[in-house]
């Protein structure tokens, strides 16, 4: 196992230079979020990550979770780590100060979450889901529910899960069968849910389940689904814990990765019905759940960023230590980081991870702007931008993380394939990210159908204009790196613009077109958005190089060269995605099912 | 009772240290800095003493550039009540630091000063002892246990032969060893609160202390690389090498 240290300098660079902390902390309520405070927060989170969470990452993977007599137990050390996490006040970071939160920006929460995810992804899923649930309850629940449950969720004393999937209802939630019947001031829930992450465990004294279920008089399809809050232990009006509710884990799954995160089959109402409380309006549950889902989608993108960073740190440490072969420039046998092909892999990991980081943090700023601004037009702009970017960021980051964590193994050679080394765990853990909270296919479809076609390309056109402005700024710079980056970057922007036009021109004539090209379209969008952030990073680096002291110059030169690597090695993929998009659906849909 | 905790900003313990190419010192530009680990233990101990009801106020103090405010903020976030920075660009040696601290002690009148026994950069292990001598106070150095007892403080010291317990009359100086305690994780709400706690900035001239160095650094170099070891066949060969090659016996 290798150690994890949060890349605080890189994080600060993104926070201050690309995600514009100095604009964020001018928003109402965020004036405390100054650069020096943020640095302290990152340093302390880094310490918690590397000293408390990272050391139980590999042992958690090897030990896995235990299901014993109807209860689920997390691996050794997980409960203590959670206790330390709660006592240190981290769960409350971005929440309302009136309910015990610290009221810090979502963008900072995103950066801190990267640290947890890098340190221990399986563990971090638990607080990640609770965070999403708080936002959902805050937005949709009645005041009585908020007052009773939110303080304990914000403090982290209780945790939360999301219960959507049933065996016949995965991506297609219209098929949900779990039932709810009203009984006085509450509802009785019966049914079975599967794939419930952290559905049961011993980290917290109570667990709240957000459950999608159907009322008896519900219209068919997704318009007939309601959302309920179902506590593991019922809560008295004074906040104390009462009876055990009729909701139990039935079994846990044996998975490819995230072994330390219990994935449960949950049974509701086997005895007399699980008591639940309505969240939002009847039959409007899916809309409410999407509040949680959208939060979770960005959070999963951050997971894939975190796991990529961890894989990079481990591969880098190995490449600097493993002696093998000779190099043209050095005498004797050398460490493998001297070999160009190992460099290529490390650079791809580094550039990819940095682009993801910038994109995730910048996307999170749209939440801060839309939550806090008093300017309605500005708010709408950022809501639309967030809606557009969410599927692209989730889809692209999680797919890129597969490549990056796989390269992490490749750099280790044979040792990477051995579990003991720990490099394989990152790939196994990363593998879930393209599946949960909406698969890559679902993200791609959301992007093309709802965010491009339904919007008639308006939001993406305005994003393309913003990207072109960045290109213009880049073209003003008179150094060789900037010129090279500019040339690849403008080509990629125009590839995306062409793909948007093609989609809008063809979706009516060929009903299979959007579904056939959506994956390539999403990857194209993500790749270009990543390039946009790397171009911005190159501009900042260029400007800083002019007046940075010699000791800081290396940092900015590295930023510039990483952006150039991205332009030369990752951005050209844009043209390839475009080429495929322009072929439409024919070769995908031509042969019939029997011909497969 | 007030406790004064002098702390130092040093290169982070996890960073590999490099000597500057001109041999004038150690490379510190652009390197991650942190509170000296022994000083963290000192702050932690002060907080525990306050939590146990033996102290009413904890003041953290450091001497150095304006960047040193970050470790003061960390000390405040751990639980200190206020902070003092004596701002100077000068390269300070333990005697000058002890003199500055003496001046602060006279102004603030703490009953107890807790320091790290040494800083991990220069490893001098002198400031606490010098301060004790300048003030004429009792000292309990290398503490691995500190217990309050009717106006006295019992300090268990880590010495070469084992442990020694001394009883000091207040006011006193305590310097901390590694086993004294394990510093707490800083809580997020306390990071936020620390921002609002008072931090006073002074300069050496305000205190009328001459901080000029009494020592001159001639050069600093990386320790010589250790040669690879060899395996010997038997004790006889070892004796032979010790006698004839190393010439130590």
Describe the overall structure.
The complex is a heterodimer of chains A (596) and B (249). Chain A has 596 residues and is α+β, with helices and mostly antiparallel strands. Chain A has helices at residues 8-18, 21-24, 35-53, 57-63, 78-87, 106-119, 121-140, 143-155, 285-319, 340-372, 376-412, 414-417, 423-430, 440-453, 458-475, 480-506, 513-547, 550-570, 573-581, 586-589, and strands at residues 66-68, 71-73, 158-163, 179-183, 186-197, 206-215, 225-231, 233-235, 241-244, 247-252, 263-268, 274-279, 323-326, 333-335. Chain A has a domain at 289-587: Up-down Bundle (Butyryl-CoA Dehydrogenase, subunit A, domain 3), CATH 1.20.140.10. In chain A, helix 9 packs parallel to helix 11 (376-412), helix 10 packs antiparallel against helix 11 (376-412) and helix 11 crosses helix 17 (513-547). The model of chain A has no long low-confidence stretch (mean pLDDT 95). By secondary structure, chain B is of the alpha/beta class. Chain B is globular. At the A-B interface, helix 3 and helix 18 of A face helix 2 and helix 5 of B.
